[in-house]
Amino acid sequence: MTIEPIAYYRGQISGKFALPRQSSLAPSLKGRIVFEKQYSMPEAFRGLDGFERLWLIWGFSENEGHWSPTVRPPRLGGNERVGLWASRSPFRPNPLGISAVTIEKIGDGVIYVSGADLMDGTPVYDVKPYVAYCDAFPSSRSGFAASAPEPKLRVDFEVSVDDKLRETLSQVLSLDPRPAYHGGSDGRVYGMVFDNLDVRFAVRDDLLTVTELKPRT
Amino acid sequence: MTIEPIAYYRGQISGKFALPRQSSLAPSLKGRIVFEKQYSMPEAFRGLDGFERLWLIWGFSENEGHWSPTVRPPRLGGNERVGLWASRSPFRPNPLGISAVTIEKIGDGVIYVSGADLMDGTPVYDVKPYVAYCDAFPSSRSGFAASAPEPKLRVDFEVSVDDKLRETLSQVLSLDPRPAYHGGSDGRVYGMVFDNLDVRFAVRDDLLTVTELKPRT
């Protein structure tokens, strides 16, 4: 079957670095589902305002079907192997992801959402309303992902920052964006792009300090 | 993007007639996810036994991308129109469905499940473990599908039937498999195939009576 994007996700994080690994881990992260013109007629969104959440079926656009029968989930420290079918790894024969996001607002051919774990520019193949009676099983036994990962770092700011940005960046950075093999490299300065900002930070022990925030030129 | 089935669903209902419209409406319905040979190595399933439920991403194989901006959900009686993006209608630009099913047993290249809303023979494009912390939002406002549909009919059997079959058929038939426009045709005899059985039943008021159950020849 050939599938084509019905929309693209526009968000605050452009690459994999610092991207939350599941939806809802950084609930303040904002984004937009921007529909392709042929799918954006107002009547196609009628009734969606009755729903609080939305499923996105999207493409791991950087992994075109490269896969292996076992994977090493970051959740298990990156060492232990589990089967591909027991994981949400992006490396799958059909590189599709599903994410439940919160609907913030419905605009003209655009759904504003929060809490997504998608990179800016990600192709979206379908959206569906989240229906609690058939989608929500809060006590469902969930193996090695039995609970949400705890924030790993405290986040402090050496620079002035408004409350909203502080909240969102704190959520994102507290998950520890550093590659696992950098765990010991305390003091190194890391950089990332967030929205139109260059962000720099350093980590000492369990404290991450944002040292610079400046508009991209 | 081109996607290929990784597996096929083998279940007890072969067509759309009497098929539950969402997963978990008929929790006793049994089925199997039979993986294609190249995806069925034992190590690919390692760790899946820690999970209670599984997401299936599957194809509405009878609707190849036929869609309309609005649809009439059976849930609203088939008269009221809502937007396609506010519905789980099978008629979508990319005809993909998602269903959370219960894992019963893991076999050799096969996952035994229950509660699925898939037809026998449905192509499955991906499976993922159900992870409660990012998938389960039990109080999420769910518009016109705020609660599971109530069973519409009582189900009685004129013929002998074992307990397990009685339970499963009762769940399926209580949802009222009749097309909406047959609502008034009380007394008419309907037939369906369930597993390897020919099933006949009639409806009077809110009572559905199974009148015949015999092995297919």
How much helix is in the residues of chain A? Answer: under 10%
H/I helix tally of chain A: 2
The proportion of strand residues of chain A reads 25-35%
Query: What is the CATH class designation of the largest domain in chain A?
Result: Mainly Beta
Q: State the total count of DSSP E strands of chain A.
A: 12
Shape of chain A: globular
Question: End-to-end span of chain A in angstroms?
Answer: 43 Å
Structural Rg of chain A: 18 Å
CATH topology of the largest domain in chain A: Elongation Factor Tu (Ef-tu), domain 3
Give me some keywords for this one.
homodimer; 217 residues; Elongation Factor Tu (Ef-tu), domain 3; six-stranded antiparallel β-barrel
Question: Short summary of the structure?
Answer:
Two copies of one chain form a homodimer. Chain A is mainly beta.
Detailed description of the structure:
2 copies of one chain form a homodimer. With 217 residues, the first copy, chain A, is mainly beta. Chain A has 2 domains: 7-143, Elongation Factor Tu (Ef-tu), domain 3, CATH 2.40.30.70; 154-215, no CATH class. Helix content of chain A is 7%, strand content 33%. Chain A is built from 2 helices and 12 strands. The first copy, chain A, has helices at 132-135, 163-174, and strands spanning 7-11, 30-35, 53-59, 70-71, 82-83, 96-106, 110-114, 123-129, 154-157, 189-194, 197-204, 207-215. In chain A, the strands form 3 sheets. In chain A, strands 1-2-7-6-3-8 form a 6-stranded antiparallel beta barrel. In chain A, strand 10 and strand 11 (197-204) form a beta hairpin. The longest helix of chain A has 12 residues, at 163-174. Chain A is globular. The mean pLDDT of chain A is 93. At the A-B interface, strand 3, strand 5, strand 6, strand 8 and helix 1 of A face strand 3, strand 5, strand 6, strand 8 and helix 1 of B.
